[in-house]
Amino acid sequence: MASRDARYACLHQCPHCSYGTNIASHMKRHMLKHTGERPYRCAECDATFARKDHLKNHFAVHSGQRPFECAICRRKFRHKKSLRLHEETHRDKGLLLWTREEL
Predict the structure, then answer these.
(1) Residue 52: other Cβ atoms inside 10 A
(2) Do 71 and 59 form a contact (C-beta atoms < 8 A)?
(3) What pLDDT, in 10s, does the model give residues 33-86?
(4) 73 closest CA partner among 83, 60, 59
């Protein structure tokens, strides 16, 4: 049986901190935290981002779209994460929410 260390050894180890991964693209993304590189730039406001998906999420600021709607109060949000945080306020008030997957 392999030792615990051998089973959890990572192929890619960050030279600056304790982060390790077996996926090369994850290490490349992680290294941006140390280099400060922000290669993705918004064409509208010049905001910069380390990750392409963060730039994509940022576009909602300029488009004005709010595609995520609360099923209880109908308030709309730009980001799914913001909706999820908002839904917690309803849970705190004793209202229950279910997704279609949970039914």
Answers:
(1) 11
(2) no
(3) 999 999 999 999 999 999 999 998 898 889 888 999 999 899 999 989 999 999
(4) 83
Dist CA 24 CA 30 (whole Å): 10
Which amino acid, 53? D
* Residue 102: both structure tokens together: 């949970």
Q: Where are the alpha helices (DSSP H) in the chain?
A: 4-7, 24-35, 52-63, 80-92
* 52/55 Cα distance (integer angstroms): 5
**Residue pLDDT, tens place only, 6-19:** 556 899 999 999 99
In this prediction the pTM is 0.58
Residue in the block written with tokens 């392999």 = 2
For the chain, how many residues are written?
A: 103
